[in-house]
Amino acid sequence: MSNAYFPKYDLASRIEGTKFDTGISYNMPAARLDRIEGAETSNFKSVLNNLVEGLNENVNAPDNLLKDAMQGNKNVDIHDVIVAMSKSEISVNVATQIVGKVINAYDRVMQISV
């Protein structure tokens, strides 16, 4: 076979290390083995509050866009309303699935005998 058709790239020199490397190559320490990274948020309650607020905004967005479209706002099209309704429906479905998973996990924890 002729090497004329295959470009000669030095791919190993192009690979950059990340914080998930094991430390074997590039003489970098492994990030996950020697330290624990702090949480971005302070507690579970604030995370859930932010998720519920985001869900509430997604659910109310189609109504607000529909009102703007009916009032003749040129920046809002009926397609924007339909997209917002689809996003709202997906958000509600995901939230329902999450609630179901949390309830199942709680039931499993409660069944554990100590």
Would you kindly provide a written description of the structure presented here, covering whatever features stand out?
- The chain has 114 residues and is an all-alpha fold.
- The protein has four helices and no strands.
Please write out the topology:
Elements: H1 11-14, H2 31-34, H3 44-70, H4 78-111
Compact summary:
Helices cover 61% and strands 0% of the residues. The protein has helices at 11-14, 31-34, 44-70, 78-111. The N and C termini lie far apart (68 Å).
Distance between the termini: 68 Å
Uncertain ranges = none
Inertia-based shape: flat
The percent range for helix content is: 55-70%
Largest sheet: none
Report the average pLDDT across residues: 78
User: How many DSSP E strands?
Assistant: 0
What series of H and E elements makes up the topology? HHHH
* Number of discrete domains: 1
Structural class: mainly alpha
Query: How much of the sequence is in beta strands?
Result: under 5%
Radius of gyration over all CA atoms, rounded: 25 Å
List the total number of helices: 4
